[in-house]
Amino acid sequence: MSHIAEFLTGINNWYNSVSNIRIPKTANPVRFGVLSAALINPTALFDPVRTHPDAVIVPVAARELAKAQAQATKYGIPRAYGSYDELLAQADIDAVYIPLPNSLHCEWAIKAMGMGKHVLIEKPIASNADEARQILACAKETGRVALEAFHWQFHPAAHVVKSLVDSGRYGSVLFISTSLYLPVGTMPRDDIRFKYDLAGGACMDLAYVFSATRYYIGPAECDVEIARKLNANDE
Ligand SMILES: NC(=O)C1=CN([C@@H]2O[C@H](COP(=O)(O)OP(=O)(O)OC[C@H]3O[C@@H](n4cnc5c(N)ncnc54)[C@H](OP(=O)(O)O)[C@@H]3O)[C@@H](O)[C@H]2O)C=CC1
Ligand SMILES: O=C1OC[C@@H](O)[C@H](O)[C@H]1O
């Protein structure tokens, strides 16, 4: 029951925080373009940008123009394009948000930085360590910012825990156990998360467990155990 109350409170807080607020923008806000009309866009970028003075979203692009136009119209975004390359060619965009399937993060981040844009890349930043290194090298070479959109790392609660761990006040960390689950049926079977050729899979999607462990104690040896169940009847 407490979970239901917590959930409803969350919805109420979210609704009141984003629906009634129009923050005036500063003279020179960061101008974002968005690569794809992904489902996560409103939660991850559109709503937060509405409540932030230093950011605006200029265009969204999708592989089909109609899809980009539909999202742009729904969320009051001024322009839409029918290809990602067309968006990257726009001179009035400072930064690009990349909520593509994981396997495409590296390719499009490098293209975007090559076109002079900073990149905010959805988690996980890449399909593997080699791609992550390529993104880092490109950011250094082009002088652009490449940031993985692991939003929890910016939360003050995470910083307090980190400062306590670092302080040694409670001794040293001997062992960390993390787990993350999605209820069966949360995602449709054709979701990108179930497609290994798009770098899907539980470890990629629920990579918070790795990023949190690394954030708190640095590189660590891990034992990984995965329960794979697509629906209630699966073994
Ligand atoms: N930070 C967070 O809390 C969250 C992060 N994410 C991350 O965001 C990313 C997107 O997730 P989500 O919004 O759920 O995914 P969606 O499937 O809704 O969006 C992915 C987008 O990628 C585009 N795309 C391009 N090529 C392909 C292809 N070959 N197959 C499928 N889609 C393609 C589609 O764009 P088009 O519109 O052009 O057709 C689609 O809209 C993932 O990296 C995920 O891990 C997701 C949820 C929460
Ligand atoms: O925050 C999240 O919750 C559910 C996941 O599937 C998603 O990709 C993740 O980022």
Automatic annotation (TrEMBL):
Q: What is its EC number?
A: 1.1.1.179
Q: Where is the Gfo/Idh/MocA-like oxidoreductase N-terminal domain?
A: 48-146
What range does the record give for the signal peptide?
A: none
> What is the reaction catalyzed?
D-xylose + NADP(+) = D-xylono-1,5-lactone + NADPH + H(+)
In terms of Gene3D superfamilies, this protein maps to: Dihydrodipicolinate Reductase, domain 2, NAD(P)-binding Rossmann-like Domain
* One Pfam family it belongs to: GFO_IDH_MocA
Its keywords, alphabetically, are: Oxidoreductase
UniProt cross-references to InterPro entries, sorted A to Z: Gfo/Idh/MocA-like_OxRdtase_N (IPR000683), Gfo/Idh/MocA_domain (IPR050984), NAD(P)-bd_dom_sf (IPR036291)
Entry's family note? Belongs to the Gfo/Idh/MocA family.
Q: What is this protein called?
A: D-xylose 1-dehydrogenase (NADP(+), D-xylono-1,5-lactone-forming)
